[in-house]
Predict the 3D structure of the following.
Amino acid sequence: MLSRIQELLADLYDLHPVPDVECFVCGPELLAEVAGEDAARRREVLLVLEDEDGVHVALYLDPEVLAQMREEAPRFDALQLATEGVSHYLYLTFRERNDEAVSQLELEVQAEVDKYAAGLLAGNGVGLLRERHRASRRSERLPAQGARGMPAPRELRERSRALRERLFAQATFLDAPDTDEGERYRIAHRAAARYAAQLEARYVDHGRLEELAIELRRFYRLGARDKLALTRQ
């Protein structure tokens, strides 16, 4: 399931192939050794070590989350934690390959957006958008939205509203607001919530899904400052 999430996000953002995230999943022993015994309470942690040989990563996910990912229909909370972990892995890899620095805030903002985008376009939505993009370059025609696996516009509007409610309106935080972590997560959360609302109003409500994909790819390649500035518009 982690590999499927990786494929979905990589297709959506038109990313170059990277190693399968499942090869980098670690257990609680390594997590405790690197980040301390208390780190496991977060349930999802991307471990990063940089040395003269390069950047080394490992992804910790709570055993219950991994068990849920083996189910046919994982629980929503487990799916979101898994998506967050895969997002962190992909975005760090993307920035590192471009020799660009990345902040923790930027990772969190992108992960929140990725959870919305992946949930909205789950199924064949991303794949069909990719084929539409490729076909447009070849001046070919593909079936209209709602065909061949693409959710109908009304279904997408309803899905978007439900996702924003669960991801943003009903969110809870592990860290207190007066801590560095708590402040960072809340800033990222508010920024992503505003951006998701913008995407819904500008693209989803009008069935402009190809333009939605273009906008998401553009946002993916912005730095933290530009991401935050865009979400305030």
